[in-house]
Design brief:
By secondary structure, the protein is of the alpha+beta class. The protein is built from six helices and 16 strands. It has two domains: about 170 residues, Nucleoside Triphosphate Pyrophosphohydrolase (Alpha-Beta Complex); about 130 residues, Nucleoside Triphosphate Pyrophosphohydrolase, CATH 3.90.79.10. Strands 8, 9, 10, 11, 12 and 15 form a six-stranded mixed beta sheet that branches. Strands 4-1-6-5-16 form a five-stranded mixed beta sheet. The chain has a three-stranded antiparallel beta sheet with strand order 3-2-7, with no helix packed on it. Strand 5 and strand 6 form a beta hairpin. The relative contact order is 0.20. Keywords: Hydrolase, Magnesium, Manganese, Metal-binding.
Length: about 325
């Protein structure tokens, strides 16, 4: 099989939400430590669950610092758990229901040390937790019509509920659940694209016996998606400040979590756009609009190479994703 076809297969796998083993990390390993729950990382899961009336499942907190306030079922991932196992456990403990995750709705992060995964889920069994069953996990659960006044633990959940409603009514990205593949660090693997004149499209690759998509370790001083900036700085330092590096969203993520300290990492498979900063400034500090760039900026580091996508099917898929951003969103809370 030609190297071009191998590259196309790598990209197609990620586009379809599948994963692949993280066998190498190209940038940032010297600034990253293996992920270990309860030591250097915290993962939070949250569940957005609606009934047939579009009321949302809420739980009343038992913790002293937010006693009797209401929130979505949510909590920390425990050592040895997958993300889906954690969602099912939290919903059972706090709300009394068994649930089945449908898709991730949103990923929020404050660097690799704190990441929250919000799932849309459906009830598959159990019964609503009442005050009679109050314990340290929660006091009770209830269906909220989103109109009746309710003392909320945090207003951040209103946005998450809206995300869930929007997706339920009009799904804008494919169903996306974690792929069970282990990863030692928190890393970003990227399909990093440059769209030039006449919608020609290039993908940045790392040269190797088999060229591959760049993977970079997240560093705790920055957002997880800063890893893409590190790759661009490494590949084309002279062009870096003339371009915007934007992670458009997540095709899928890989997590296993069964071996503490060895498989607690996450690999985010992402689409990244490298876009010329058209509003640069001239020597007088005035904005100078630049003409559209026909080709990607030159590579300065021989480890990298631009690969022009000739396959019309793959080109159309990538163009559609870059224009409509029909991907799982990842938001930095920095």
């Amino acid at each position: 099989m030609t190297s071009e076809r191998l590259v196309e297969e790598q990209v197609e796998r990620l586009l379809s939400g599948q994963g692949s083993e993280v066998s190498v990390c190209d940038v940032g390993m010297d600034q990253s430590k293996p992920a270990a729950l309860r030591k250097n990382i915290t993962y939070i899961v949250g569940a957005v669950i609606f009934n047939e009336k579009e009321e949302v499942l809420m739980v009343q907190e038992a913790k002293p610092d937010c006693y009797k306030q209401w929130y979505l079922p949510a909590g920390r991932v425990e050592v040895g758990e997958s993300l889906e196992e954690a969602v099912r456990r939290e919903v059972k403990e706090e709300a009394g229901f068994d649930c089945q995750p449908i898709t991730m709705l949103l990923i929020q992060e404050q660097g690799p040390q704190w990441i929250r995964f919000i799932f849309l889920a459906r009830i598959s069994g159990g019964s609503l937790k009442s005050l009679d069953a109050a314990d340290q996990e929660s006091l009770q659960a209830a269906w909220w019509d989103r109109q009746t006044p309710l003392p909320l633990r945090g207003r951040d959940i209103l946005r998450l509920i809206e995300h869930g409603l929007k997706y339920r009514r009009n799904p804008w990205h494919p169903l996306t659940l974690p792929v069970d593949l282990s990863c030692r660090h928190v890393v970003q693997r990227m399909v990093l694209v440059f769209v030039g004149a006449e919608d020609h499209i290039w993908i940045l690759l790392v040269r190797a016996s088999v060229p591959h998509l760049p993977t970079a370790a997240a560093v705790k001083t920055h957002a997880v998606t800063w890893a893409a900036n590190m790759v661009v700085q490494d590949a084309m330092p002279a062009s870096y400040y003339d371009h915007d590096v934007t992670t458009l969203g997540v095709f899928g993520l890989q997590h296993n979590g069964r071996q503490h300290g060895r498989t607690d990492g996450v690999c985010f498979n992402t689409l990244v756009a490298l876009v010329p900063d058209r509003a640069q400034r001239d020597e007088d500090g005035l904005k100078a609009e630049l003409p559209p760039a026909g080709r990607p900026p030159p590579i300065e580091n021989p480890r990298y190479v631009w690969f022009q996508v000739e396959n019309p099917d793959l080109r159309e898929k990538l163009l559609e994703k870059t224009k409509n951003t029909s991907l799982l969103p990842i938001h930095s809370l920095y």
